[in-house]
Amino acid sequence: MLFDILDILGTIAFAISGVLTALHKRLDPFGVFIIAFVTAVGGGTLRDVLIGNTPVGWMLDMKYLYCIAGAVVFALLFRKRLSYLRTSLFLFDTIGLGVFVLVGIEKGLNIGLHPIICIALGTMTACFGGVIRDILSNEIPVIFRKEIYATACIAGGVMFFGLHLLNMNQQVLYIATALTIVVIRLLAVKYKLELPSFYKD
Amino acid sequence: MLFDILDILGTIAFAISGVLTALHKRLDPFGVFIIAFVTAVGGGTLRDVLIGNTPVGWMLDMKYLYCIAGAVVFALLFRKRLSYLRTSLFLFDTIGLGVFVLVGIEKGLNIGLHPIICIALGTMTACFGGVIRDILSNEIPVIFRKEIYATACIAGGVMFFGLHLLNMNQQVLYIATALTIVVIRLLAVKYKLELPSFYKD
Amino acid sequence: MLFDILDILGTIAFAISGVLTALHKRLDPFGVFIIAFVTAVGGGTLRDVLIGNTPVGWMLDMKYLYCIAGAVVFALLFRKRLSYLRTSLFLFDTIGLGVFVLVGIEKGLNIGLHPIICIALGTMTACFGGVIRDILSNEIPVIFRKEIYATACIAGGVMFFGLHLLNMNQQVLYIATALTIVVIRLLAVKYKLELPSFYKD
């Protein structure tokens, strides 16, 4: 139940981040909606397609479509004032990361995939909506260039399977994984951490 | 039968629009063919992948490949004179929209998806070949920026399910849906209609 | 067995070509790994998704992930000296083309698809990792613009089915197909062959 609420909050935050990107690119209303939609569900859709879990999730559970549509309307109406919500949106977005990684890992475990593949699926669920958003917006995906984002997801996944080995119960697993992701992400943003660079300027 | 002919005309028109984009980007013959192909079948392919209808349609019915190959050769041979065919091509393209939306809606209905998802599948079938074409050509998809195109498809889908509720027979459904799409598209182009803009210059 | 070794050599060569592209685009370590990964397995992944062979191959056989990870680390450590390996890498890359085309053709044959579709699947397996790499790097795919690359794959596929008609045994088929691809590719690079151009400058 709590998990479902966090899932929805994350979806909404992802959708709104899509709206902001789309407005920045001056897209029309249809474009804004599509970018918001793929940002929110694109990662999970890619995951479902790659593991053969079709029809993909958002086609079978209408709540995602409704929440995203609501978030788009809200974000468009209040787009001049979204900056007041910046902290909340950032928080929901970070919670979304944690929840989506867990969803992806569970989908992989359910069909007996290797832990490393499960971590990849979790990271994909959390991060590849943003990748598709950037491709559709004709940008090199931002998570390939900077920001500790995928790294936080991978660290959370490693934590998950570390505790899994120790036979922790599911609740501990979930909370520790999500907390790992949230804390790394918050620290990374606070201290402007990036992955070490290969390039000297 | 008529439906099949219209389907083919639409496929050809979509393929030729792909050829024109590819020539504009100065692609080589292989690139021209691939862009024509994805423009023509990319929307249906994405739909099939997302609903799990695999192998995707064009792998099982060779007529699409042959028609597209023929259209590409034709368009390349007569590329200096395609402007004489502009009106016909525009008409076929618009007919294609109508037919492809119907195909997508039917695929969704067949597996019991929600009407809104069916409309999304219809719109995807009609419009996402062009989106993939634009991504491969390194452009922000044109239907995200301007043109009443997806909007016409969505309106057609709404018409379909409105009449469906009224228990109209299939033929009426099909004709009314396709006409809605064609008329909105024609009016939009004639009067240069666009979706309302969020941006002031 | 030999086939498996060649498959791995090709995968490694493709991954390293991905690393080089990613470094050129100044991506961070995560971006470098993802680009290397999609370059190496993206073509096969797209093929598996389109024919419904899911979970896709690299999720079930961990050797691809390990080889790619190893290749990425190697390429990053020795990136200043990779130019000494240029000839070997080019050779492995070309071997990869031959092997991947054969893998794709066999996957299509196994589910009874038309020979032309099998050739398309082989070409896709060999070439579309590079296409996805270029899209993620915000470039028009290089094989749409120049280079005899896909053409060599298609020619190999035609050779395969030509000999297939003549009831040649599998070993002859495989060797002749791979040789056709390798020889065309080598000649094309040596003599700087390109597909004929539609454009005059």
UniProtKB/TrEMBL annotation, chains A, B, C:
Localization of this protein: Cell membrane
Keyword entries, A-Z: Cell membrane, Membrane, Transmembrane, Transmembrane helix
Tree of life domain: Bacteria
Membrane topology: Multi-pass membrane protein
TM ranges: 6-23, 30-50, 62-78, 85-105, 111-136, 148-166, 172-191
Family to which the UniProt record says this protein belongs: Belongs to the UPF0126 family.
Protein name (record): Trimeric intracellular cation channel family protein
Pfam families: Gly_transporter
Annotated Glycine transporter domain residues: 5-79, 91-164
Cited PANTHER family: INNER MEMBRANE PROTEIN, UPF0126 INNER MEMBRANE PROTEIN YADS-RELATED
Alphabetized InterPro entries for the sequence: Gly_transporter (IPR005115)
Species whose genome carries this gene: Pseudofulvibacter geojedonensis
Keyword check for Transferase: no
